[in-house]
Description:
About 5% of the residues lie in helices and about 25% in strands. It is mainly β. It has a 3-stranded antiparallel beta sheet. It is globular, with a radius of gyration of 12 Å. The two termini are about 15 Å apart.
Amino acid sequence: PECEELLTLVDRTKHEPAIDGEAFPDCQPSWYWTATPAAYSPADYAWYVNFYNGYCDWNNRNVSGFVRAVRVSQ
């Protein structure tokens, strides 16, 4: 998902993970890559959402992180 899409899943009333645990019971309290490149260096950096506390930032694409599959709504 794009950064803004993934941020819609964040629940800032929760942490570790900052997400609805009933809807997403297997979500790790860690960070998940998005498909949004970082303007700083689009070929090397991308945005992620951290579900430990609900914030987002960018990092080098070489760093390991989780991913979340998405599909077009029906």
